[in-house]
Amino acid sequence: MSAQTNAAARATPILECRNLSIAYAGRTGDVPAVIDFNLALMPGEAHGLVGESGCGKSTIALAIMQYLGRAGRVVGGRILFRGRDLLAMKGEELRSIRGGAIAMVYQEPMASLNPSMTIGAQLIEVPMYHESMERRAAAARAQMMLDRVRMADGERIMRSYPHQISGGQQQRVVIAMALLSNPALLLLDEPTTALDVTVEAGIVDLIRNISTEFGTSMLYISHNLGLVRETCDRVTVMYSGEAVEVGSVASVFRGMRHPYTRGLFASMPVPSADKNSRPLVSIPGQPPPPRARPPGCFFGPRCASFVAGRCDARPVPLSSIDASQGHASRCLRVDEIAWDAAPAPGPGNITATVGDIVLKVQDLSKRFRHVTANDGLTFDARRGETVAIVGESGCGKSTFARILMGLIQANSGSIDLAGLELSKLPVTRRNANTIRSLQMIFQNPFDTLNPSHTVGSQIARVIRKLGVLRDESGVRERVLDLLDLVKLPRDFAERRPRQLSGGQKQRVGVARAFAGNPSVVVADEPLSALDMSVQAAVTELLIDIQRREGTTLLFISHDLSVVRYLSDRIVVMYLGQIMEQGRTHEVFTPPYHPYTEALLSAVPIADQRYAKRKVLLTGEIPSAANPPAGCPFSTRCPYRIVGTCDRRPPPVQEFSASHRIACHLPREELLAMQPVFEEVTQ
Amino acid sequence: MNSRVVILLALIWFPLTAYVMFRSALGALANYLLLPAIPSVIVLYVLALRSWRESWVAIVGVSLVSFWLLMAVAAPYLPLVDPNKPLVPFLAPGGVRHGILFLLGSDMRGRDVLSRTVWGCQRVLVWGITATSVAYAVGAGCGLIAGYLGGWWDEFVSFASNVLLSFPVMVLFILVLNLLGQSGFNIIIAVTCSSAPVIMRIVRGLALDAKSRDYIQAAQTRGEHPLWIMLVELLPNVRGPIIVDASLRLGYTTVAITTLTFLGLGLQPPDPDWGLMIKEAATAALLWKYSYMMIVPALSVSSLILGFNLIADGLREMSLRD
Asked: pTM for this structure?
């Protein structure tokens, strides 16, 4: 203990935030965005900053970079960089630190790169400016740095313009650019959010090794607990502008001591559980608006352990739990709550009864000029069943949804919905009954509702248009019933979309899709734009309604943990083709298709009870305009058989009546694969 | 825009248009037609002051425009002499003759400049706003069609608008008015030909952006008619930039109409309008002594256009702030 204290005293933190408070100027006075934030980042340490949107995590990064803009300002506390006050620095001094000793990587790589300069020119600038290096030496450094961020073809990349390389490569370039100035501190603000999962896994692997390889300290901002577990040593959980729990990743994730952190974990699906064995428990309510935070504990109104008179009496301080792990929590009842008790079980676990086949897709293909978006899709969906279509960008899952909805027409193959052939029938020629029985939930909650009309009128329009009901009082009654169904207050009917949060808008989207009692609902990534605690609530809602109405759900997603949780069967797509399909447990356990294996391994897992096997893919997803010959996955497959996989399309191998894998690998080799996830006994 | 504002605008707009365009057909009714419009202008001004108080630019703009709007609707009831009646020529501002005070002097034919300026405002406002509205109806309609339907429709509408845009504006005006004859209604056509293509482009761009939104796809997947999607789903969401552009464009149209009458191409004498007044005073104003004949209508045009432009600036400023 004393040795540790001595060690801590000897090392000066690279970055220290002391009682930092930041506010944004509003029309009616200052709005606090970050309140009393403390952080000590040691050399070579990676610190994760986790929280939902609006919790102030990005504001902290901007304050460190002194990029707050005109509206934001630090209203209290200090930011020390190597013991010097950053807030007191001005002009030249600050400029030399920014981009030099402190570098930042943003979410959108394309926005960080200058589209009119080659990558090389942009990289060379950094050492030339910060270290007054000669051009030739700077070019050599840049080339070397590209090697170190594992970009094989550095010379070609240097000559390329940003739009000529893929998103993953762009982000590697941005990271290389940040590392070129040998920063002591690297700020990463959601660096992988815009990337596909298998590409993300590669970048995460790179980030994880930055501190050991370069000795750089990192502040890693993310909304994803799993990514923080994979990259960071310590973590701060933020809620509504406050740090609610701090500590080493191991101690926080294994023994969380704040109800919010625990709530986040309970609302995340784990890779081994499905909807019947471990239901998700969402956090009720939503974060308070920054202008109207409750007195005392900000999490109070949403907390199950809330005690009136105590929790809302005065601001709650961070109290230490385990000094050796630096573990602290902003909860008054730390010693009273039974932290290890199993989370309250969710609502009744009735297995949905799966009925007859309602939707049958046979050999469906769609080409756009030279791009084959869907190639020979064959699968079916039964009544009351959830079928997940999984794949990364460009795999053709959205094209399939558009064909199904009648927005575009297929070139060949068939879609059979209750005896009706839909693949070449545009929505304008479908009758009201067909349209009613096939509805869709859209991806972006901020786009799914028309901002100009009230929520009620938009749902009512669907009811009238689909001919469910005609008389006005009946329509009105049905609108209110639907709001009840998606658990929204009835007075929301009069509200406009801008008055709703993202999760509430998505609920309205669900209500709209179910307005006509559809038999099949297509959900296109309905959760990907929502915050973690809201995702769980919407997922539960979908399952609940589906069970009650017996609807077939086609769930399009790239997030395998959610898919595992809510689907009965999974279809894995890659570049327009089905690679594997089967019951959920069949897809999640060996034998795997090599692509499924990589996808599973790319899922970031926060839960300390699970370990996973790393499968890293090299290369990028090929363009659909120029797909590889043979198996589409052959360019990235770690098991590739040269001469076979890149020549002939893979045969479909059947492992059970429902489990099919399209792969050239011998059956025995597929059967011998090891599971990706393993439960770790503590 | 709430229903209260729409009713007030209608109360001002329809009587004023009827009064200016069809006064002879209205007979005795014409004398009372504009009475309800006077309080409407005042109420509208107060409402604007209240909801735009964050932007002093918009307040100045709406004050200028409201002043001229009030002059336009109150003209028949103000103690003004007949604007077309020759009384005393070349009287300097402030002069009194026959017991009448010529506050802004009289022109070379002896007509009261103040009276002509107030009555002229009526014509400029009515024709300017009507022409802009028609241009907007045509331009926004074409823009929605081109942006939403795309394909062959887009090709056709865009090509037609490019052809119209390739003419210099004045040449287009002269061409239209020479082919169709000189009248107020043909000015509307001329203004539409020159403005609608620009409006079309703005609306087309906005529609192209809004078209890819999920709520449009939602409407498509429930089988809505394209007309419904354009008018109910798209149009309300492109109105913000359109309103800003409309107040700017009102300024342009006012300039265009006064320029046309200045060139002798637009509205016909003897009824006063500012362009005509500037034209008639052009020779007399060569002498500094008589320059007031030109300066008064010129300042009037400028202040009205400035008013429209400031409203546009204010609206843009307020929309950026939220």
From this structure: 0.81
